Input
Amino acid sequence: MNSTRRDLFKLVGGSVVGAFFTPAPWRLIADSALWSENWPGIPRPARGEVRTRFTNCALCPAGCAVRARCVGDQPVALMGVPGHPLSHGALCPFGLTAHHLPYLPSRLKQGPAKEAAETVSAAISKCGPSEQVAVLDLRPGRTASWTYRRAMASVKNGLYLAPPSPLGGSAAFDLQEAKTVLSFGAPLLDGWGTPGNVIAARENFRLIQAEPLESRTASLADLWLPIRPGSEEALAQAIANVLADRRGQGLGGAPADSAGRGQGNLAAVTGLTEQQITSVAEELAHNGPALVLDGGQAPAAMELNRLLGSLGRTIVARRETPVPEAWKKAAPVTNLASVPDGSIRVLLIDESAVDGYLPWGTIERKLVRDNPLVVTFAWSRQGYGRYAQYVLPTAVYPEVFDDIPPAIDSVAAAFRIAAPLVAPPAGMVNPSEFIGGLAGLPAKDALRERADAIHKAGRGTLFTYAGAQSTAVRDMNPDDFWKALNEGGCWLDAVDESGASHRFSWPANADDEKRSSAPPEDLPLVAITCETRAAAAPLSPLMSKLYQESNLRLAANHAVLNPVTARACGVAEGARAILQTRCGSAQIEISLDSGVPPGVVKVAAGAGMIDLCGGPGGHPTRAKVVVA
Amino acid sequence: MDKQYIARGVKRCSTARFLLWIAPWLALLAFGLYSAGLCLVKGLNQTNMDNRFAFGLWIFLDLTVIALGAGAFFTGFLLYILKLKELSAVINSAVVIGLVCYSGAIAVLAVDVGQPLRFWFTFWYPNVHSMLTEVTFCISCYLTVLAIEYLPILLRNRKLRQVPSFLVFEHELHKLVYVLAGVGTFLSFFHQGSLGGLYGVLRGRPFAFREGFLVWPSTFFLFIISAAAVGPSFILLTTWLVEKISRKRLVRPEVLQLLGRISGLLLAVYVLAKTVDTLIWINRTSPDAGFPAAQYYAWKPFGTWILFAEIVLFGMIPALVMLTPRLRRRTGWLVSAAAMACLGVALNRFVLTVQTLALPTLAFDKFLSYWPSWQETGTFLAVVAYGVLVYSVSFRYLQLFPEERELKAEVQQEQEELRVMAGRY
Amino acid sequence: MTSEKKPGKTARYGMMIDVDRCTGCGACMVACAVENNIPPAHDGADDRNGITWIRVFQVDNGQDYPNRRSAFVPVLCQQCGKDAPCVAVCPQQAVQVDPATGIVGQMPERCLGCRYCMAACPYHARYFNWWDPAWPAGMEKTLNPDVAPRMRGVVEKCNFCHGRWHAAKQLAAADGHAIEAVDYVPACVEACPTGAIRFGDLNQPESAPAQAAKNGNCFRLLEKIGTEPKIYYRSKKDWVRQIASAPKPGQIAPKLAGKETSRG
Output
């Protein structure tokens, strides 16, 4: 048979036509669509066995229970644990994205730990008689805090410093009991206490929010009192006057007139009417049990609680989580304000767990003038690392192995461990081991020792997350107890039958700011900070959804002005400007909103903003805004 | 130097002069290609479009050039189907304009979509309910038709027609011209219409949404009429421009006046239809969707002036001018009216693309505005440069204006006579 | 109009969002991003070109201080009914209303990136990938293996965590029964700390969305347009219910209406 070129063409032509009757070309066409989707550079998520692990969130004192969905050993999603007696399954946006934190680009990867240890030891030994060595613990109440207290007890002139807490740590607010809550700017619905607990209790009480800005809490409160900035004390005083009058009222007697004229002045300071103030006071008195909360601006608000008889009802004494006896020989907790200025030679700051940043100015003036040594343990340089001589890198949650002290609204003592979900990278420094090491204290097993002490005390129950079960501690052996705490569990104290409320004493007013009566002319505005959580805490890049890709939360170093105020300052929408306070200045970006009161600049706390604008709770500061 | 490529009997400027003319356009094209390249390589974040302004300068440009390029199909329809013989003077130019407009539009679309390599999905998984499917199919087919219509013009080039097979091919193709014109009209009818339908079916945008006839919203028909109206105007405008730039007489004034009259007539019909449609929309369609029409014009800077400008200033007035014989005979009036008509259609496309997207639909939306980035503008300018270049080359080497030779002879004769008369005195 | 379907056969998943409970914390927004492998913002991204499948808006009553009152409204794909505006307009049939669940599904693999569906959607629920996704080094380890990351040039939107529905259906099938309404919830519903977002099957009368459909305090956004969304919002406050209707310059819309935010 002679095959010709024509035959070849016929074969090829026929094959091509025939091929279209096979699946081959159609599959290729369909597959090319998939190829066009998966270009190089688009990551492919790793596959593997899906497991569930549990831990507790170490980002804030709420310490919410966390259920982690893991692929192999890598957490890929974090969610709350429904049915948890404290957090009730809630987890905030920070906690939901925390599994990204180990990969933050700005994270410190190494630090001169050895050199720092040597320098600190040398400096301690060279301390003068009146000079002090201090540890500043930004989240007191942890097991690590005890390590610091014990270390400072054995170091000469050792001081343990901690920021003051509203109830001194030995009492808690019982929201479940309250029927009326008056909050002086406390962000009750925006990160206060244990969010899950607040939400669970919310239906029970009527919320009155007194604050200058319409915050999230104010917008959801049953009543918002738009008081002038800085007038919280006046409002508290005015309400106290009404309550005192009612008390002093005899049967059918008229209220005393002595507060009458003063009351008018106080009302004028707050910007409210006397009737409004009276009606709030009446509500507190008659719609009890009442609770007054303070966001940090009006310690005198706590006085109202005393007048209202909250103690024993909505403020309950709380026993401390048991500690080993040997630990009780520890330095006392000292308030930074009571330290003499210029007396601290060596300062070690534990920034690995932060409840609230203190403005650097309040710390700096306690340091000696010449070459103080500041060592900070932090995840980045953004916090006190800007001022420290040594910044030693620490693990971030969910790498940390730390415990979380009970939150301010946890009526029973609690012990929960943030069990690490991923291993920290090499080169991380453990602050309690470092500081413990300075005093020759082995701190590695401190958490185990604490757990054993709790077990020994024999009270309370253990709630395990995997099975949502409660077991009495008495019915467990110490090893199982420890294991359960590490695999997702929470120890809760038993109810204090002894009625120990009489042992509770109100903490002293820690207000060291002297407020001048007349606003300075050169600083005509009041700066109120918001978003303090985001100030220097590690933020997942996904939080850009809230701060950058939407207007939901104010991004760092962004400020909002009333249009009238903006015109007076000569700035327009979107303008770059400078915010100046007594403590310095910073660049901000302006946006306008007529919902912000005139004369106020609402600014989101960036890394340096806390230093500029004051302490926790958005303490109002006098400020000025000028065009950049 | 290239005299052998230029048709006999017509005069073209020297090669050097021509190169001087196309040099800046080439530079613009290069810049534009670079801009487009950036958008393709780095992604559409190079533009200022965003999730609110999903369509921007490019879509507006596409719609406008396709409306302006409608002269190609409409002139073909008028010449070959309705037998208006005078229009044979401009049909070649119209085809080139059409080709340039459509190919430019498709080139910009290739950059505008996020995944240009997936262009074939529309053909493979077509959605019969989507106006955009219809647009894609018809424009692709019509571009093919235009390319086939351009082929004879190209093959009649002085050098190319020396190849016998080209000559035969061109001759055979010419027999198909009626079929091509018919197919072109049919395809154009549908894609011009469905470009309007793109906006008219958007139930989620009451500003653009219109009721209509069966599945076709009124904008379907309005777009066809406006494209047919402005096609001749654009041919008029470009012909006058080319005459001015080349300093030659290319068509008889009567042809331009005929174009003007056709344009004016259709523009008048369009203005009437648009007015009726707008009234229905203001009084029924938009309020029924819960959007009182007055509120669209309360967002600065889009006040009612824009509606007035679109319908009256750039619609009714040029229509009236072009329908008045006395004014039609004055070139200044005619060309101005044609330009205004083109602007009016561009304004209409702008309103439907940009204003639709700028207007908020939710109560808590903001009114947002948009300005194209330099990359977007560069790509747009690339299309303009491409159009000028293709047209310039076609004008130089191909016979776009069949009457040019005649008119040149007439002009020479006039000048001869003038010289003779001058010489007598 | 709800069709009479046997429960467990076909579902029409919907939501009831209680605006009075939403604190604007944003947990839903980040939980969605975690579940669906949405990349963090690129440099230069803002609220106009970021990707937030669910986005919480702060709305207010249009008054100045001190009469300003705000509320928070999560807006996501409204999962319109069978005539969803985006379904009809896609030239590639990359959008489909799933008959089994009523979910409006988007296929990024089929998407050409023409963005016509984005122009069609009145709720601004669709997002375009203006950039290629980029995660900081190492963070790709935290991606959800059940959802494919999208590259640039395609449109994406909320799909009620359709992947979770599939997983629940498989689990239910392995257990030998049909999927029940309680077997699956989207990530935002699971994450919401206040329980403001409730999820359920509109075909089942006792579900939260079905109850919401009958409640006088409940409303849907832009009802008059005829999209038949399956997301119901609830509020006792009159001024909040006003946001369901068309924008009115200078009234409900923020005071900056007329003051444009321009890019360019």
The radius of gyration of chain B is 23 Å. The longest strand of chain B covers residues 368-370.
